[in-house]
Structure to design on (614 residues):
């Protein structure tokens, strides 16, 4: 499903602030696997996730996701690729704080001009699934951290992606909410999705439904 | 292509989310469109008015000069002028200025006669229904609206006592008032029978103020002028093209004023554009990054920015034009109008004729809206082509 071949990512190449974030990474993740990426801050976890989601391109190497060479895709194809395949839960959620929950959740569907009825039904199911139905009309900036995170998860699922990528999803949550998040991930795995979670939260390190734990250090695996 | 109403809805909600900013921009934009279009509307109307006035000017005016100054001309010359080849009619005119001390203004007194075709052109509708004999018998006059207003402010409701050249008073009744909605200069005019004018000004019955000529072929105007100069070396011959030039000069001076205002407004407009073009707030940048990360294409982002800019600029444009139309043609452009026409106590009653000049409106449209849209889209586009993860950092 996801294959990284000899990936290197260098920021600000050939400048005084050159930064080698990833060095010769090789990685294979099969369909429906749950992978945990762990490693110290600055070890390159977020960088790797961005490359897989085609948010940026590797300096060297190749990334193949679901048979497509994402590392060589043109700009607009990467957008389509993300919209159709990837649900991204960001480290800081990246919600638009002045929109309400409903509006945030439907953001990924807007460019494809969705059918209104189907969309509403889908959003309602997701709101229910994450127990935030009563927050549908609330501005995101007025929600608690846990509620915001659930809106972010709902948003990542709105386009029914095959792959879910979560970057430090529990960094701002207490233990109870973190455990709830883990349960959600288990449910999503049962729905045949491929999941990658970058984290240094020890709660993730001995999950019985986790398939791989990849340890990162200074841009290496 | 099906219109994506979610994108339009998103654009509208973005405007409302930044309501203070959006309304500020709409306010400034509307004010500028209002100012620019008001100026253009006024100058168009005045131009139109001038052309009407110019059309009614006599083709040739003959004046007598004495010691370099305008003097009255012998009425006997009319017949001699009529004998010149190409001259169709020669009409002696009697007119002058009367200084009304109480108000500090000059009235133009014009003598009229039942057989003078010339006046039928200028005061056509008016003159048609006048009984000249009645006017003369009753010592009456017809006054412009501006004159009527000034007189009644000074307690002359139905008549006025003119001070004649010899110091005696001459009481003349106001028989009617004429509206001066189309002739720029006619608001300060008083019409009365020629004999009364001669009496008030103390002029000889054998002399008139000037003689106006009509020629059969306008091409011959220069030749005929030359012949008149030869025939009467003591005259000044003014052709309508001379008058046209001097009227145009007055107007050009005014369009200079207009240009100055235009430049000031345009400058302000570009200041705003500059401010907009100089960059997006970090919040706006982050939003673009988020949308891209969620699978929006660059052109999806450009589209919402286009909708936002178009909605703002189009609403402002419409508002500005509507307010300007109201201001210029219904309120008659208070303040601004004085800049164009020079302040005079007699002139305010003159009405700006309504001309909907679509060309002007299109010009304004294409001068402002595309520039504003570009100023919104270009910086957004610059952010949108960056990698999403870098924008969000
Ligand atoms: N856009 C960028 N420009 C320059 N340097 C960058 C950029 N993105 C990441 N880096 C650098 O690359 C290295 C890896 O960063 P990355 O964000 O992948 O680490 P991380 O493992 O996700 O850390 P954390 O646990 O703190 O989130 C860091 O040293 C970071 O400073
Ligand atoms: Mg990170």
């Amino acid at each position: 499903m996801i294959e990284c071949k000899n990936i290197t990512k260098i920021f600000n190449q050939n400048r005084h602030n050159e930064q080698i974030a990833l060095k010769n990474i090789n990685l294979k993740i099969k369909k429906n696997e749950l992978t945990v990426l762990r490693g110290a801050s600055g070890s390159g976890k977020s960088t790797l996730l961005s490359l897989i989601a085609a948010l940026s391109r590797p300096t060297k190497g190749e990334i193949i996701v679901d048979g497509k060479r994402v590392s060589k895709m043109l700009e607009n194809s990467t957008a389509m690729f993300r919209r159709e395949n990837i649900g991204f839960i960001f480290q800081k959620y990246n919600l638009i704080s002045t929109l309400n929950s409903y509006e945030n959740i439907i953001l990924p569907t807007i460019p494809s001009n969705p059918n209104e009825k189907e969309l509403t039904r889908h959003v309602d199911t997701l709101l229910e699934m994450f127990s935030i139905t009563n927050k549908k009309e609330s501005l995101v900036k007025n929600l608690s951290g846990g509620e915001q995170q659930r809106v972010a998860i709902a948003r990542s699922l709105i386009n029914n992606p095959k792959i879910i990528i979560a970057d430090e999803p529990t960094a701002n949550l207490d233990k109870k909410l973190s455990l709830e998040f883990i349960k959600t991930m288990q449910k999503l795995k049962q729905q045949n999705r491929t999941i990658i979670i970058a984290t240094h939260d020890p709660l993730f390190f001995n999950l019985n439904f986790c398939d791989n734990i990849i340890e990162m250090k200074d841009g290496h695996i | 292509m099906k219109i994506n109403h979610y994108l339009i809805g998103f654009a509208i909600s973005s405007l409302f989310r930044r309501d203070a900013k959006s309304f500020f921009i709409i306010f400034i934009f509307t004010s500028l469109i209002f100012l620019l279009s008001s100026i253009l509307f006024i100058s168009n109307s005045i131009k139109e008015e001038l052309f009407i006035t110019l059309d009614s000017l006599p083709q040739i005016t003959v004046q007598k000069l004495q010691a370099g100054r305008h003097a009255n001309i012998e009425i006997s010359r009319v017949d001699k002028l009529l004998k010149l080849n190409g001259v169709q009619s020669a009409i002696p005119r009697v007119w002058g200025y009367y200084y009304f001390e109480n108000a500090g203004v000059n009235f133009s007194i014009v003598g009229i006669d039942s057989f003078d075709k010339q006046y039928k052109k200028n005061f056509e509708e008016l003159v048609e229904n006048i009984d000249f004999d009645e006017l003369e018998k009753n010592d009456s006059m017809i006054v412009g609206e501006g004159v009527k207003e000034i007189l009644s402010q000074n307690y002359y409701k139905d008549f006025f006592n003119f001070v004649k050249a010899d110091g005696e008073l001459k009481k003349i009744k106001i028989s009617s008032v004429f509206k001066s909605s189309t002739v720029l200069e006619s608001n300060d005019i008083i019409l009365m029978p020629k004999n009364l004018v001669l009496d008030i000004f103390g002029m000889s019955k054998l002399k008139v103020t000037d003689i106006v000529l009509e020629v059969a072929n306008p091409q011959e105007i220069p030749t005929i002028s030359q012949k008149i100069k030869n025939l009467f070396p003591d005259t000044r011959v003014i052709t309508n093209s001379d008058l046209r030039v001097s009227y145009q000069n007055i107007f050009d001076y005014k369009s200079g004023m207009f240009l100055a205002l235009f430049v000031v407004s345009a400058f302000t407009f570009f200041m705003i554009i500059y401010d907009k073009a100089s960059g997006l707030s970090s919040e706006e940048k982050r939003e673009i990054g988020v949308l891209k990360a969620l699978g929006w294409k660059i052109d999806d982002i450009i589209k919402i920015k286009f909708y936002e800019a178009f909605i703002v600029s189009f609403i402002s444009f419409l508002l500005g034009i509507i307010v300007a139309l109201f201001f210029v043609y219904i309120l008659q452009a208070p303040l601004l109008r004085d800049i164009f026409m020079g302040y005079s106590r007699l002139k305010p009653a003159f009405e700006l004729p309504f001309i909907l000049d679509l060309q002007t409106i299109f010009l304004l449209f294409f001068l402002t809206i595309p520039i504003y849209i570009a100023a919104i889209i270009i910086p957004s586009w610059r952010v949108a082509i960056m990698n999403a993860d870098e924008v969000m950092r």
